[in-house]
Amino acid sequence: MVNSCRECDNCRAGDEQYCLRGNTQTYGSVDRDGTTTRGGYSTHVVVDEDFVVRIPEGLALDVAAPLLCAGITTYSPLRHWNAGPGTQVAVVGLGGLGHMAVQLAHAMGAEVTVLSQSLRKEEDGLRLGAAQYFATSDPETFRTLRGRFDLIINTVSAKLDVGRLLGLLGTDGALVNVGAPPEPLPVPVFGLLLQRRTFAGSLIGSIRETQEMLDFCAEHGIASEIEIISAEQINEAWERVLASDVRYRFVIDAATFASSGTISSS
Ligand SMILES: [Zn+2]
C-alpha cells in the first residue's frame, strides 16, 4: 500500500488499509494522481513520506523485506484478536505467511499450534516457536483439538473445510482468513451459532501498525526466513512458489535489476 484518500473515517482513524475509497496498492493500482503504480522491483521508487516505514537497527534489509507483506498480514490480526499470554492460537499452513504468524504469536506470549496438511515441516514449526504441530490429513487431529483455540489464523489460499476448523474454536473464538482463496468457501452456519464463533478476514495492516510490527520484530529478534535470488532467477523462483518449494520467502536482490534486461513491466 502506497497511498489512500486520507480523509475518510478509516484513514483518519489510522486504518488506511481499509480506506473507504480504496487504498492504493503498490502494484497496478491507479494512484490519486491518475498514474498507475509499478511496485518496488526497481532500482528506485518514489513514495509519499506518510507511507514510508523505517527499518530498525538490527534488522537486515533482506530479511525485513517480507515482513512488509507476510509480517504485517499476520501481525495485524494477532493484535486485533488479542493474541498473548493465556491464549491458544492455531496457524493453518506453514508457508510464507504461516512461518511469520508462528514466530509473532509465540513472541506475543500465546501458545501456538501449527495445523498443516502433513508433518513434513514439523521440525521447522517447533523451531519457530510452535508448542505443537498437527497434521490436518489425520482425522484424529480434529477430535483431539476440538474447542481448543481462541484464534485460528488461516494462511491457506485454497479451498478447505471451514466447518472442521470452526469446530476447533472455543466460545467466542475467531477463525481469521489471511489467505485469499479465489473460490468462495462454504461456511456451515451452525458452526458459528454453537459457541458464538466468528469467521473473519484481515488485510495487511496500517502504516503505523507496520512500523510497530518492524520494531516488535527487531526487539524480539524475529525475521523472515529467506532465499535470495537475482533478477534472472525470477521465472524459476515463480515455478518453485507454485510448487510450494520455498522456505519461506524469495527475496530479489534489487542490485541485480540495474544490469538485467529480463524484467518487463508486467
Ligand atoms: Zn480513506
Fold and architecture overview:
This protein has helices at residues 9-12, 61-64, 70-80, 96-108, 122-128, 139-144, 162-166, 190-193, 207-220, 234-242; strands at residues 27-30, 36-38, 88-92, 111-116, 132-135, 149-154, 169-177, 198-201, 226-229, 249-252. The longest helix is centred in the C-terminal third of the chain and has 14 residues, at 207-220. The strands form three sheets. The chain has a six-stranded parallel sheet, covered by helices on one side. Strands 1-2 form a two-stranded antiparallel sheet. The protein is of the alpha/beta class and 266 residues long. The chain has ten helices and ten strands. The model has no long low-confidence stretch (mean pLDDT 93). The structure holds zinc ion.
Helices and strands in order:
Blueprint lengths: L8 H4 L14 E4 L5 E3 L22 H4 L5 H11 L7 E5 L3 H13 L2 E6 L5 H7 L3 E4 L3 H6 L4 E6 L7 H5 L2 E9 L12 H4 L4 E4 L5 H14 L5 E4 L4 H9 L6 E4 L14
Parallel strand pairs: 3-4, 3-6, 4-5, 6-7, 7-8, 9-10
Antiparallel strand pairs: 1-2
Helix pairs in contact: 3-4, 3-9
The structure holds zinc ion.
